[in-house]
Amino acid sequence: MVPGLVPGLLLATGQVLPVSSVHRLARTSTLVRIVMDADGQVLDMGRKVRLATPAQRRAVFARYATCWVDGCPLPATLCQIDHADNWSSGGLTDLKLLGPACQFHNRDRYRHPDRYTRRKVGKDRWAFTYHRLAGVRRL
Ligand SMILES: [Zn+2]
Question: Cα(68) to centroid of ligand 1, in Å?
C-alpha cells in the first residue's frame, strides 16, 4: 500500500474501510472530542449530551464532598450533577465544568444566576457563593 492512500481503520470493530467510505464519513459525520481517564472512561462529553455519564459522576464525587455552593452541607453523593455554565446557555458536559449541586441550589442557580458568583478552588474544582439581593428586605 502507498502511504497516505491507506484505507481507514474503524477502531471500534477493527474493520478496514475503503478510501471512498472514509471520504463519505468525513463529509457526513460530526467530529466529537472525547476525553477519557486512565481506565478509558469518558470524562468530557462537550455538547453531545446534557446528563453526566456514570464515569463523570464518580469523578465528581471523588472531587467534591458536598454541594458546591458555600455553606450547603448536602453530601455530593446525594446531589445532582450541575453544569458550571448552564447547559441551556451553551455549557459543556465536561468534567472540569461539572460539580454537585443539591436540588435547591441547582434550580436556584439556574433561575437566578445573578445571585451567585463562581470561583476556582484548587486546580480542578469550583465553588459558588450565594449573594442575598441588596435592597430586598425580609419580612
Ligand atoms: Zn446546596
Answer: 7
